[in-house]
């Protein structure tokens, strides 16, 4: 699966484990189609045996066969329905898991642009369409075509005139399918895009609802909500009206054909070209044929509308994956020396970092300082390979990080971000992330992270649910939870993107205490916002407009770097 998968490749790959089920489902659906054709034929034979031959023995035999066919039809319907739903759930789950794995292994450049609502819509709404295409557009279409051929053959056997009449319906139905299918594909693609964008926007609005309330922006947001949803309603209306028009057009063809056959059939019976039983059989088969042609018409239109969903899933499944990159699997950090060599980086054509040269000795603490937008966090993302440098090279212990497996690299670097992700689950889960650790180990890391007293004061302790539906943690407590997670992993390299600018002094001091405990004798990078964190480091790197203009000890920089002196007194002292 290294090359990009076509839609055919996706169908082949994900349907392979279920070929036995699809085969059974297909056989059952073909038999069901034949049963629907057989019922009118048997019914016509029964009528002829009574009216023309008055043969009660054959009549009762045919009646028994008719009853048996009805029972078989019911059993087949049960097999088809149960088999379809079970297979659809498993089949869709496989594709959903594949998409989730692709998203989790996608490059940072994609993730930074990805709309969460669009991804959710694709995972939930678009994936079942692959199963629907297999059952509706492949198996059921095959069954409908086979049924139509059987109808043509039997009607032609009874009456060539009736067959010619029926064949006139086919081109008209195909023409309707083609015209409406082209329109449906275009509208459905536009609708899927609008729904994905709308869902992403709603996610963002709900996430920022407090800010909207503080700015008294509720009225404006509601207006935008109405406008965006009206666009979706209009597209849905167009699609529904088109489907309705197609349905009514097909119904008009059916009504016209049935009315015409009443006249033709009566004439053929009058001329003794067909029997009354044959007339009733052909009339019933005409209804079966009309149903099959309508389904084929609808399946074609649905295929065009479903294609938009198929292509969205295809795009996610073809995402370039970090795990596909060649790497040195035997990598182990022995010292923790970090080296940026002539590194430049651009994002959306804006150059954020220019010719960065930075060497961080093993076991040393380095603060990265600079104004907002100077590129401090970008350095961390480049080190973690969420982004790739435009130029230059980054090494760990003299090994280029591009040769280190992504998982091994990130397992070796502990990153505490400003916005700490807290799961709506217990404190135990939020610290261990589902891994097995003893209570003594968890309490030990909580003590080192200076969060043990907070947890101990809660009635349920480690089992206390936090997050959206539980106990609400402060910003400082969240960062200490993140530090506890990192202590459990015990990586040799650490990065702290401070949130201390928004914390009170007590919380800030506790975070600093936890960080000092964690970073002892480890190579550490602090994206600094606070005076105390700078003073406690071995070196300070000064960023200005994407360039490192100075790198030295704090005291030396205060004397020799005017930019750092102004930055330190105007920004960091003020924050402290």
What does this structure look like?
This protein has 576 residues and is α/β, with parallel strands linked by helices. The protein has helices spanning 7-15, 19-53, 56-104, 108-111, 116-126, 128-158, 160-167, 169-207, 209-214, 218-270, 276-317, 376-383, 406-411, 427-432, 439-448, 452-456, 475-489, 505-519, 531-535, 554-560, 562-575, and strands at 338-347, 350-360, 365-369, 391-396, 399-400, 413-416, 425-426, 465-466, 493-497, 523-527, 539-544, 547-552. It has a six-stranded mixed beta sheet with strand order 6-9-10-3-11-12, with helices on both faces. The protein has a four-stranded antiparallel beta sheet with strand order 2-1-4-5, with helices on one face. α2 runs antiparallel to α11.
Q: Which CATH class of the largest domain is shown?
A: Mainly Alpha
The CATH architecture of the largest domain can be given as Up-down Bundle
Give the low-pLDDT segments. none
- Number of distinct helices: 21
Q: Report the radius of gyration as a whole number of Å.
A: 35 Å
Structural class: alpha/beta
Summarize the structure.
The chain has 576 residues and is α/β, with parallel strands linked by helices. The chain has helices at residues 7-15, 19-53, 56-104, 108-111, 116-126, 128-158, 160-167, 169-207, 209-214, 218-270, 276-317, 376-383, 406-411, 427-432, 439-448, 452-456, 475-489, 505-519, 531-535, 554-560, 562-575; strands spanning 338-347, 350-360, 365-369, 391-396, 399-400, 413-416, 425-426, 465-466, 493-497, 523-527, 539-544, 547-552.
């Amino acid at each position: 699966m290294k090359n990009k998968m076509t839609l055919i490749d996706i169908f082949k790959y994900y349907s392979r484990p279920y070929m036995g089920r699809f085969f059974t489902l297909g056989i059952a659906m073909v038999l069901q189609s034949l049963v629907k054709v057989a019922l009118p034929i048997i019914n016509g034979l029964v009528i002829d045996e009574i009216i023309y031959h008055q043969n009660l023995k054959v009549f009762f035999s045919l009646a028994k066969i008719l009853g048996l066919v009805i029972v078989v039809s019911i059993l087949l319907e049960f097999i088809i329905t149960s088999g379809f739903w079970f297979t659809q759930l498993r089949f869709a789950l496989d594709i959903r898991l594949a998409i989730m794995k692709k998203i989790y292994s996608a490059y940072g450049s994609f993730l930074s642009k990805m709309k969460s609502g669009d991804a959710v819509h694709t995972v939930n709404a678009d994936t079942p369409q692959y199963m629907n295409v297999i059952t509706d557009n492949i198996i059921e279409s095959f069954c409908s075509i086979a049924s139509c051929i059987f109808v043509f053959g039997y009607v032609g056997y009874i009456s060539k005139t009736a067959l010619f009449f029926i064949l006139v319906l086919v081109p008209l139905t195909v023409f309707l399918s083609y015209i409406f299918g082209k329109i449906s594909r275009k509208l459905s693609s536009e609708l899927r895009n609008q729904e994905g964008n709308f869902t992403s926007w709603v996610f963002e609005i709900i996430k920022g609802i407090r800010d909207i309330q503080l700015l008294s922006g509720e009225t404006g947001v509601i207006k935008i909500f109405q406008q965006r949803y009206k666009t979706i309603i209009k597209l849905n209306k167009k699609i529904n009206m088109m489907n309705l028009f197609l349905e009514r057009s097909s119904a008009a063809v059916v009504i016209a054909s049935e009315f015409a056959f009443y006249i033709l059939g009566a004439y053929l019976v009058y001329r003794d070209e067909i029997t009354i039983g044959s007339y009733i059989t052909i009339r019933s088969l005409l209804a079966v044929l009309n149903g099959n042609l309508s389904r084929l018409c609808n399946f074609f239109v649905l295929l065009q509308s479903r294609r938009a969903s198929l292509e969205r899933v295809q795009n996610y499944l073809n995402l370039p994956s970090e795990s596909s990159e060649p790497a040195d699997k035997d990598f182990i950090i022995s010292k923790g020396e970090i080296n940026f060599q002539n590194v430049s980086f651009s994002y959306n054509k804006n150059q954020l970092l220019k010719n960065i040269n930075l060497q961080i000795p093993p076991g040393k603490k380095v603060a990265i300082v600079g104004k907002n937008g100077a590129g401090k966090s970008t350095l961390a993302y480049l080190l973690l390979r969420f982004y790739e440098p435009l130029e230059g090279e980054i090494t760990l212990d003299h090994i280029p990080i591009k040769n280190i497996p992504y998982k091994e690299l990130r397992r070796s670097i502990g990153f505490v971000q400003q916005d700490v992700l807290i799961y709506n689950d217990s404190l135990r889960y939020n610290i261990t992330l589902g891994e097995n650790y003893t209570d003594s180990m968890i309490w030990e890391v909580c003590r080192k992270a200076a969060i043990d007293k907070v947890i101990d004061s809660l009635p349920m302790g480690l089992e206390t649910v936090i997050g959206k539906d539980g106990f609400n943690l402060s910003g400082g407590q969240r960062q200490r939870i993140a530090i506890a997670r990192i202590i459990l992993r015990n990586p040799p390299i650490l990065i702290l993107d401070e949130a201390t600018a928004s914390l009170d002094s007590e919380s800030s001091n506790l975070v600093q205490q936890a960080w000092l405990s964690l970073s002892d004798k480890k190579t550490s990078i602090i994206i600094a916002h606070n005076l105390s964190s700078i003073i406690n480091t071995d070196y300070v790197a000064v960023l200005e407009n994407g360039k490192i203009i100075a790198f030295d000890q704090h005291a030396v920089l205060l004397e020799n770097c005017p930019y750092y002196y102004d930055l330190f007194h105007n920004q960091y002292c003020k924050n402290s």
